[in-house]
Structures are given as structure tokens and as C-alpha cells.
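Supplementary material to the annual report.
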Amino acid sequence: MAVDPERHARTIASLTDSPYDAIVASSPTEVLLLTGYWPVMGDSIAFFTSDGEVRVVIPEDEVELAQKTSAAKLIPYKPAGLHTLADPLQLLKGPLQGVIDGLALPHTRIGLQLGQGVQPSSYAVCTQFRSRLVELLRELAPASIYSGCDELLEDMKAVKTTKELELMQTAANVAAAGFVEAARCIRPGLRETDVAAAAQSAFETTEKAEGLQRSYGYFFCMSGPNSATADAAYARTRQRSIEDGDLVMIHANTCADGYWTDLTRTYVAGEPGDRQGDIRAAIDEARTTGLRAIRPGATGQQVDHAVRATMELHGFGNAFKHAAGHGVGFAAANPNGRPRIHPLSTDVLKAGMTFNLEPAAYFEGYGGMRHCDVVTVTNDGVKVMTEF
Amino acid sequence: MAVDPERHARTIASLTDSPYDAIVASSPTEVLLLTGYWPVMGDSIAFFTSDGEVRVVIPEDEVELAQKTSAAKLIPYKPAGLHTLADPLQLLKGPLQGVIDGLALPHTRIGLQLGQGVQPSSYAVCTQFRSRLVELLRELAPASIYSGCDELLEDMKAVKTTKELELMQTAANVAAAGFVEAARCIRPGLRETDVAAAAQSAFETTEKAEGLQRSYGYFFCMSGPNSATADAAYARTRQRSIEDGDLVMIHANTCADGYWTDLTRTYVAGEPGDRQGDIRAAIDEARTTGLRAIRPGATGQQVDHAVRATMELHGFGNAFKHAAGHGVGFAAANPNGRPRIHPLSTDVLKAGMTFNLEPAAYFEGYGGMRHCDVVTVTNDGVKVMTEF
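Predicted assembly:
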């Protein structure tokens, strides 16, 4: 049994209703989903069967870490060592065969990750199996039927359990330390790199992270005209010196043991001007109308519309260049994370879903402002995890 | 033509000698190798043909960044937007078809990354295509023959060009700022998180990174008994308070526009004791004998042996638990990066190869010491990139 009985029961239910007898996954995020353990190096393989058996074939130097967050049965292997230069995949063969035989998987329908997806970084480097894992499984269990279960995994990740929500709240609390420091230190003359490093440092040293195995993440700072391009899929801190009156956007993706936040706040270096006040008023109101639209049964489209209509009312419709949000938690910054809060999204909100809400306005050559929260759909509305 | 004529000519030569008419790659490291551009989000696709044509199908918000480091012809696409919720792969179809037709690839032998590999992190999140890119290519150019060219790419990455060596040297110089700060601040009472954050911050704010598009990386601190387990495949900073007399290991993986370092230094909190002096003397000597063994024509085995024999002579043979090094530059921390400096490695050193040399000793419950440099094989010996 996995550490989180709620997730364990739900995964069994998902499998029972699916065309799969078992799921095999190696991407860290999906191993986390299935087992409660977020692998470091990406060379752990998780098995979850429809009768609730959970196994992780795991490099031996991650065993201690895994035991702290997962009660899955661990099958250690040694992916490298002084006595072999073998292809790491060859070293996986024996342990994988043991699990396949032990779980009686040779004649079953196995769901795998075959589609493209966005994976949060779990370390400085990470293993990717590409086509090789499915080839190896086909070799070890040739009578089984393999097919992609990417959509099922996407759906499973959308609604969080109580324990997962707690970890996301911890992640949000830890991330707050970085924003508090950014707000304190932003002033004309500092470079973006100085501010980002100060926020990052406050995040990395906060005692709020105590008890976590891995508190990990990224803070970015984009100022003045650089913040105007922050509607891109990625953030980037540069060496630009902040000028008096600049909009200064702090963006962060941080995680607590694999559960991610996606957060942005925008400050002004010096005294805010009228234009900045107008933009902030629009974003604050759009945030409020967006939050009001969130409840079980609402669609992503409806929530996006609530935010967008307010921005339009304030004359900032064209400046709000992206969707109002996307699923977060297992995903960090993935526009396809469920539920999608997008003009075309028919995704229906359910209690326990988590996503970001990010009203924003970007003005080329001038600057951008975004306020991005992480929220949970509750039984009767919404809870904001990031009230700071 | 790519910005780096030396790499461009070499890639043509590699393809000419290979069974492939073109290589198509999407992993950021291999896109960097083929084009000079290190993608952020992992959804750029590089094409390199045996007659030297280079194309990158690239998300439009990475175009400006790509133009600064690559002269490859860029074909922008929009992977997400307000007017579509389509599968991002579907949005790639048109641009990919254009490149395939333009390069006359429909009846050619195309090399792809199909094998497992270790990929450095390029951002907080990264796209993985898994099996879908090859499926899509098969759909768009069904008469072409697709096969894995992973080994060829591995070989191509081993020997760096003059420009690549310069960027690696810059990466080493920037990383040095973090180590200087760590050496300055380590003292009993600080937590590992405090020291790692201070080193990270110095790295992120140093002016040595000016001129780079992306100076990016990770600093870790492991002290006392925690440093004893630093022979693991990964490093991990904890909240432990450093005690007087502890060994304190600082490990970093950093990069300059995609070219990575793998670096470790070990300090003592307070006054070093005799045992620590003995370990350091052994490691210093092992480093010297290792460096002396490096020259074109030597094997990885010979270099590993030079280091290992010295550690054994000092009575630390069993404490030196891993190989003496592995290729770095395109790889960060990958034991299979070429050349492998390993007891069984027959990899032959050539001028321009870059790897780390990492004599170390780990004592369970007490601590570990490692000194990890990045070195280049020169025409007549070796150059250490990390003399700090």
C-alpha cells in the first residue's frame, strides 16, 4: 500500500475503469503520482496493478529517500558501478523481470507513457528512456499488450488528495519566503540577477522547508521592458539594472517533495505611477471575478471568461495575452495541465482540482504585470493557497 | 551554416561517414550540438543533413534567444495560444512538413535519438516527446528509414571545438564565484542550506556571467556524515547544522548557454585535523598522478588506474568508491558521458575531449572528501579548466 490511502484507492478505481491491468511509468512526476516517491535521477520504474500492488525498481542510492515518502515495495538496483560499464538499461533487466513475474504481468494490458508531455525538473540531470523502456518491456513480457495511458494519467493528476493538497500548501508557504524577500529588496540600481538571487536564497534557507526531503525550485526576476515579454512560455533573469519606476516581476516555480507551485507577483521599483495603478486595479479586480467564478461544475472556459471580461472592461483585453490558468501541482508550468483555464476549455472543475489563476497585462517596450496564485477548488467554491 | 564552423564541418563529416542522410533531434543538448542553440522548453526540433543544411523548428518565443547563439535557419511555430487547445504535437506538423519537403528528406535515412540517455535540465520544466516524434515523422515522411543514432551523437559530443572549449572555460570561471563564496562563509553553526544558498547566490550574481544568455546551475552542500554519501549519483543539501571539524563538500553543476561543468571542492569547518590532512594529501597526489596520465592516446582505464593506484597507496582504495571521471560539457553528471574514466574503459583520449577528474574518499558516518575538476585533453597533455 502506498503512504497515501486516498491516492491508492483512487488509482485502483481509475485502473478498474480503464482498459489497463497495470500502469508502468518512469517519468518522475508519474512515479510520484503512482507511489508517493518523486525520483531524483529519473531511472526509477513504477508499477501499479489494478489490484493495488505497487512496486518501484529504484537505484539503490535513492532507496533511503524513497522510504521517507512512500510505502511502495522497493526493488533496488545499481545503475552504475566500478565493476561494469554496461548500458544502464541492461542492469534494469533482471529487476524488471522479477517484478513482471512477481506481479503476474506477462499476459496483461499495460498502460505506458508514450505521448509527449512536459516534465518538471527533478535534478540537475535526469534520465529519459525514450523508446527503450517499452522495447525492454516487450522483450521481457512479449505476450502483454502495451498502449499509451497518457490521458488517464493526465486526468488522475488533476484532482489532488488531502495529503497532496497539504504538500502543495507547504510548497506555497515555503515559496512565500522568496517573495517576501523580493518585495523587501527591490529598488532601483539592483540588477535582476541580484533580486532573483536574493529571493532564491531566502527560499532555500527558510525554516518553513523543515521536514521536507526536497525543497527545490527557481526564482526569476524580469524588470521594465523585460517584464513585457513574460507572457512567453518561460521566464528569464538578465543582468539588466532596475530603473526607478520599473515594473518588476518575480516568477517562481518551486516544489515540496515533487508537488509544484507556479507563482508570480509584480512590484514597482520606487513609487507606483498612475498607469501602474490602473493596471494593478484591473488585475486585482480580474483576480476577484475569476475567484468568484470557481466552483465545482464550472468550466475552465467560464473562469477564463470571468477574468478576461474584467481585463477587457478596463481596456486591457489585448494586453492579457495568455490563458487565465492551467493545472498545477504535479505540473509546474504546463499550459496543458488539467484543468485548463482557457477560452476554449470545456474541462469541468471538481473539488480537489488545483490550478493557477494568472491575470496579467503586457505592454511591449514598457513592462508587464502578472499576479499568479495557486488555488484549490473546494466543495462550495475556492481556496487560495498563496495568500501572501 | 551554424555559428561554429568547426562544429558544422565536423557534423558533416560525421554524417558522411555514417549510415544517416540526416539527424533529427529534440533533446536540448543534442539540438545545441547540431545548431549552437540550447532550447529552453525542449519543444524545438533540429534537422542537420549530410550536405550541411541546418534547420530548427522552434517555438516563436525562443527565436530571439536562438538568434543570439545560432545562425541555423529558424522555423518558428506557436505551441500554445488563446485560439487553440490543440495537442502541441499537431501544431508542429505543418512546420515539420515544410522542413521535410524543403530539405528533400522524404526518401532518406534519418537518425534519431531512440535510446535512453541523461539530459541536463534546461529549465524548471521541459517537454519530452517520448515515442511521438518518431511516429509523427513516420507519418510525415513515410518512405524514409528511421533508426537510432544515439551512439553517433555520444561520440560527436566527446571532442569539443575551440568555441565550445571557450564556453566551457567561461562556465568554469562563473562557477568559481560560487566556490570562492563557499570557502569564505563556511563555519560551524551555519546550516548546509545556508552555505549552498550563499554559493548559489554568488554564482547567480557574478559579473563573470555577463555576455551569456543563460548562466544557470545548482550548488549543493553536504557536511559531516552527509558528505560520506556523496558518492551517490546525485547531491542533496539538507538543513543539517555544520559542526566544528566537519568536512564540508560543495558540489556544483553549472552551465554557460548549455555547456556544463561538474565541480566539487571540500573544505573543513574550523581547523583541519590529522585524518583530514591525510585524506587531502592522498587526493592531491591522486589528482596530480591522474593529470600526468592524461594525453592523447591514453585510455580512460589508464587514467582511472593512475588515480586509483595513488589512493590505494595511501590506504584509501576502498574509500574511493566511484570511477575517476566521465565526459562533461554537453553532459553534466552522466557516468556514461564519453570519455569514461573508469577501471574498464577502453575509451581512447583525443585532443579536445573534456571530462572531470574526481579523486575522492568516503567514510560512512564520518564524512567524504572529493576534488572534482574539469579538464581538456590537449595535443601534448592536459589543461585544467578549474584552477581555483
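The radius of gyration of chain B is 22 Å.
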